[in-house]
Design a protein that fits this description.
By secondary structure, the protein is an alpha+beta fold. The protein has a single domain, classed as GTP Cyclohydrolase I, domain 2. Helix content is 30%, strand content 30%. It is an enzyme of class 4 (lyase).
Length: 122
């Protein structure tokens, strides 16, 4: 049985989008990350070294969002999910990239893409 660590509503400024003005001006993206992990060891030892440090996870996610530019948030979500799985304690992840300022000519609240990835050996 796995436990879940969730980071919700992480905001980072990036330059992702198909349109030139998105690449030039950028916009805020909001990221949600859910990790399936076994936290039994961390619970027993009460040691942060035995779990996924969500502060370091947030730093990694923000670095990716603010780093390389992608046309599609599908690509960004995939890159984030792959990076999350670099931690061998993560069994499965779901990463949602929200683009609340997407260039849509109609009233809307949010556009998002969720990438779900599972460790191949899990």
């Amino acid at each position: 049985m796995n436990d879940t660590i969730t980071l919700t509503g992480l905001v980072a400024f990036g330059y992702h989008g198909v349109f030139e003005h998105e690449k030039r001006d950028g916009q805020e993206f909001t990221i949600d990350v859910s990790l399936d992990v076994d936290t039994a060891r961390a619970a027993a030892t009460d040691d942060i070294a035995d779990t996924v440090h969500y502060g370091e996870l947030a730093d990694k996610v923000v670095a990716i969002v603010t780093g390389e530019r992608y046309d599609l948030i599908e690509t960004l979500a995939d890159r984030l999910a792959v990076a999350v799985l670099e931690d061998p304690r993560v069994i499965e992840t779901a990463v949602t990239v929200h683009k609340p300022h997407a260039p849509i000519t109609h009233a809307f609240t949010d556009v998002s893409v969720t990438a779900r990835r599972r460790r191949a050996s899990a």
